[in-house]
Amino acid sequence: MAPIFDDDNSLFNFVVKEGNGIKGLVDLGLTEVPGRYIQPPHRRINKQEVAGSREIVTIDLSELDGPNHEQVVKAIVHASETLGFFQVVNHGVPLEVLDSLKVTAHQFFGQPAEKKAVYLKEVSPSPLVKYGTSFVPENEKSLEWKDYLSMMYTNDADARQSWPNDCKEVLLEYINTSTEMVQKLLQLLIGNLGVKLDDSRLHELMGFNLVNMNFYPPCPNPDLTIGLGSHSNVSMLIVLLQDGIGGLYVKKGDQNASVGNEVWVEIPPMNGALVINVGDSLQILSNGRYISAEHRVRTSDVESRVSVPRFIAPLLTTKIGPFPELVACDGVARYKEVIYGEYLKNLFEKSLDGKKSLDFASI
């Protein structure tokens, strides 16, 4: 192991506090995984135990405007009710934007540490931008093999003023060209439940947006680490661009299956496609009909992986609970009403741990 750190604190300070990240650690000539990054056996990802990816459907959204409209709606609904993940093509985001996003992510994380560290939470010039590593490293016993840049979206003007100059324009194009698709998907999924929403309520449910650039440097021993721990997202929907490296795994079937009895499937990289997944908020609103599935990311020893997720969520002050129409139909509310901002705060006070985030709304 080339880099020498006196103890865990010096390693933590180098990676987390000083903003060098995993990228900085790897650049030192790392040949072994530091102990702080070695995951307990039950959290590691064994590729031999992963099922095939045939369950992952790819949906051509252009067919929503043609004679196959009903079949496409059924496919979207079925995927949201069963796996909680699907891929879409002909989604309205230009392919050159997707390619540019991947290049931009590599360029940002390839910069010297001091240029990225200006966006560390403690010193960032804007509360809308945060650069960091792992999830909440202060709360984690074993750290994740990931660096990230997270940007809150309020409007284009705020983004242009506060987001990093070298990535803001392509990220804004990503948001602006994917918004019509997001609205259409949410309207279809909510409409399928027999629920009618006016524009103001729809805005409440998708009015809080984050976009991240995630960077997973090569790891000397992927079998001991994780890029992103098993979790479900708290938002309504997530739109994800992944590159061609692969490594995104989704838990299939019983989300409460015990360790050792779980079935995981890989979301295969597909050029030009976007991955869509259901978040906790939509699972709560649908009274459990749509599934916010656990997922995680494996590291690679070959090359760096990037992904760009967009999180579409309710406004922080919005109350979310099962739609009354569904409670009347089902005869039971499976979740209590919560304020989304409090639900989000609860997530960031802990480390990622499967679907435990949903406990906050459980009855």
TrEMBL record:
EC number: 1.14.11.61
GO BP: any one term: coumarin biosynthetic process
Biochemical pathway: Phenylpropanoid metabolism
GO molecular function, one term: metal ion binding
Entry-linked InterPro entries: DIOX_N, IPNS-like_FE2OG_OXY, IPNS-like_sf, Oxoglu/Fe-dep_dioxygenase_dom
PROSITE patterns: FE2OG_OXY
The Fe2OG dioxygenase domain, residue ranges: 207-314
Cofactor(s) the record lists: L-ascorbate
EC top class named in words: oxidoreductase
Reaction(s) catalysed by this chain's protein: (E)-feruloyl-CoA + 2-oxoglutarate + O2 = (E)-6-hydroxyferuloyl-CoA + succinate + CO2
Keywords recorded for this protein, A-Z: Dioxygenase, Iron, Metal-binding, Oxidoreductase
Annotated SUPFAM superfamilies: Clavaminate synthase-like (SSF51197)
UniProt record similarity statement: Belongs to the iron/ascorbate-dependent oxidoreductase family.
PANTHER family: OXIDOREDUCTASE, 2OG-FE II OXYGENASE FAMILY PROTEIN, SCOPOLETIN 8-HYDROXYLASE
UniProt protein name: feruloyl-CoA 6-hydroxylase
Organism: Helianthus annuus (Common sunflower)
